[in-house]
Every structure is written in structure tokens, then in C-alpha cells.
Amino acid sequence: MPPANSPWGKKAQQKKPLNTFPSLKNNDIANDSPKSPYQETQDDELIALASIYGDDFRRIETHQSAWKKSEPSFEIFIKTSDEDFSVTLGVTLTLTYPKSAPLLTLKNTDGLRESTKFKLQKIIEKLPKELIKEEQAMIMEIVTACQEVLEQAAEAKAAGRELPTLQEERAAHEAAAAQILEDQRLEEEKKKMLESQEEERMLGSLVQDELKRQRAKAKETKRKNQPPPSITVSNSRSCLS
Questions:
Q1: What is the pLDDT of residues 89-103, one digit of tens each?
Q2: Contact 107, 158 (CB under 8 A)
């Protein structure tokens, strides 16, 4: 049975496939077509997520025709020890996921403070863009990041601490983003400086090589231009006298 605070009352029922064309029994053409590496990764991740999250994982059935493959959609109910801090993450895996980012939405956020919603929204906007570089399953990592935000809010409530306001969260986010841009700018300047130093070093090396070549050439030219040594032939008469 799903938890009492689950947004859906019961576990999703498996629906029988709908045959669009009577002559294609159980969509044999779609089922028999070879799977892409993306589909295999998605299938493995769906099995893992269903096993990890149990009743908090709900697959959303999407109609699949005989000619077009559907994009898997599902929801994960993210909860904490405090039932007031929970959210539902809606996920649609694109055809090229995990090379491309999944489509993510937040649902059932009415009970959360605006600052918490803001942090969750930033996670689903930014984290997938960072994770697609690895081209690996990422949904569990996104869920964990969202859960950490909810846990922080729940712990603040339990300790009687005031959470930052939405304006404060936005200001902190903008400051962090500005710091990232500044770090990137400094890193780019450092990179350009190192490249410039390397170019100067290589240019200096080329100049030295050219000077050596010119000196060697001048020395060789001078050697060739020198007159041959004179040979003194003694007079035979002088020798006889």
C-alpha cells in the first residue's frame, strides 16, 4: 500500500496495450523493432527506480502506436520525515535520454514556502544540464537533490529556524551565479595568459633557432669566400745552385 500522504491513492494499474491497427496484434512491429542504446538505458533505469521507490514510483501509461515509439513518463513522490514537506516530480524521458535532458516538472507544491519551491525549481532546471555530460542515468541523483532541499526545510521547521525568504534565496542564487561567472572569467584569463606565455616561449625558441641558422649560414658563406691557400713552387735553378 502507498503511504498515507502519497498524492495517488493506489498503485498504478497496468493497462493492456491498445491496438491501433487490428492486423498488428499487440503492436508486434513496435515490440519487435531493435532497441537503441538509449532505450536499453531507459529500461534499466525504470526497473531500478521502480525497485528503489516502490509505491512512490508511478508509471504513467502513454499510448504507443505501431509506427512511433513513445517517451516513458512517470512520477516519483519525494517525501521527508515531515509529511508537510513533500513534492511530486514528473519525469518524461526523451528519445535520446540520457544524452539529452529529461523533461521535469514539480507537482503538489502548494504546502511549500516560495523559497523552497525556488530552490527545487533551480535543481530541475540546472542539474540535468550538468549531468548529461556524463550520459548516464540521472533521475535518482535529481530526486536525492530535491529531497535534500525538503529535508533542510523540515529540519529548519523542527528547530524553529526561519527559512530564507524568496527574495533572500533569489539574491543568494544570483550571488552564486555571479561568483561562478567571475570564476569562469578568471579561469579564462589565466588560460589565455598561459597560452600567451607558451606562444612567447615558442616564438623565442624559433627566433633563437633562426639566429643560430643564420650564424651558421654566414660562417659557411665566409668560409666559401676565402681564397684558397697559395702554393709556393720553388725555382729549379735556385734549387740547383
A1: 999 999 999 999 999
A2: no
How far is Cα 56 from Cα 50, in angstroms, rounded to an integer? 8
3-state class (DSSP) for residue 214: helix
Task: Decide: 77 and 7 in contact? Cβ < 8 Å.
Answer: yes
Cα 31 to Cα 225: distance, rounded to the nearest angstrom: 88
Which residues, 6+ apart, have CB-to-CB distance to 81 below 8 Å? Answer: 151, 154
Alpha-carbon distance 55 to 67, whole Å? 32
SS3 74: strand
Residue 233 is classified by DSSP as P
Q: What percent of the chain has pLDDT over 70?
A: 68
Residue range 37-159, CATH number: 3.10.110.10
